[in-house]
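**Tokenised fold:**
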Amino acid sequence: MTPIQLTEFLLGECKELLHELAKPQSKPQNKSSIQAIKSEVGDCLFDALMLNACCAVKFKYDLSECFEIASEKVTRRTPYIELWGPSDGPKAASTSRECEAIWQNEKQKENERQQQQQQQQQQQNTPSSPSPSPSPSPSPSPSNSPNFIDMVNSILSETALNFQWLSDFYENETEKFFLVLNTALVSCAVTSCFFLGQAYRTKRPLIDQGRE
């Protein structure tokens, strides 16, 4: 499974969710419609988590980095939110237009910083004089891979923190139980996907040799 394939799956699930939301019978009073919407939203969330896991394997980054970047980005673009807005800086936004202006302004600043970083990287990669080509880096060995148990514990710890926050909205103990069950299943699925990718990358030369 490649990141492109998972992205296509995610797009498909998003289209199914849009189709479900656009139905005339999609109303808060319609229990069957609510169940269908929850199912489609769950599919989108699961595919997004799987996509992050697959990209983390291919592009060699930590699973939590995407969540951290998204959190930092939203915090920068919405300084008027009292929960995380600066206490000593400008954060007032009384209309939707002002909110949109702040969002677009911060987005433009991010794009400019990204362009500057790309230009600096290109300048660094441009050799001033011929230099010997670097030797290929050795492929990662299984011993360098993160420990499965440690990674499960890490993800479940983050899940527990999120559950503690979400559980405040649920008074029914049965709903809390299923919330724990769903988050645990998703965490294990994402972790399994990561290590299956690691195992496949390690064994791929042997598989290709057997095919030849």
